[in-house]
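quick one before i forget lol
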Amino acid sequence: MTTASPLVLRGRGDAVLRFTGAAVVLGRADGEHHIPLEAIESVHPEGRSVEIELIALADAEPVVYRVEDVSEAAATAFADAVEATLPDEVVDVDGSALVTHRPPAAPAPRDHRTKLLAAGIAVPVVALDVFLGVAGRLEYALTFWIAFVVTAVGGLLAGDMGRDLYRMWRLPRYGITVTAESWHKAYGSWVYRYRDTTGVLHTYKTRSALASKELSYDPRDPKVAIHHEGVPARCGMAFITLLGCGMAGGGLFGIGWLVLEALKG
């Protein structure tokens, strides 16, 4: 009798789910999670995603691993294969305690990449400024730096606020929510600590000071987290995002106008 080859699901980002017949192995940005069959309550295919629900003790919230953007047919086949091998009797254990975690290998130093990126931005910016001074007038070259700073500040505001708004929408729905405990204060921010489902400790910084705070983190990258804000705070963040977009757009418009005036001579 022949057996099927081990199933592999490749999902969004770097998520890779493998079923070897004896365990399910989930690989993602935070490392490799080895999930024995004895820790699994059930496996649910939902369209182009798969959810692995672990066994939980009474009155405890079960831990769920989710992999998205996979083949629908592969998701169904994966769930059926794992369900067919699960033990007939579910043992009353904490499934998350049976999961073992192997952290990712240390990334190679990126100092050279940072330098290349900085050079890749600085060289065309300086070249454009020189062009404005030579082809246009000296005041064009000076005004360019004002427009460039406005563009850069606006882009940073829009990028940071927009990213946090997106996380506030996505992570409470698709992430894992935990209670983080206040640890200490550093450089005007309060530092909170929380552990992911594998027991790895992470920190989170925010301006508000509370004994504890609810955080939602990305199960694919547990160090990425966000705390819950009310509607007024979100409206303020949305306003800053729009303001940043306006600043960036206005700065780019100013740079474009300077270039056109310099080309006219």
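fyi The CA atoms of residues 69 and 155 lie 30 Å apart.
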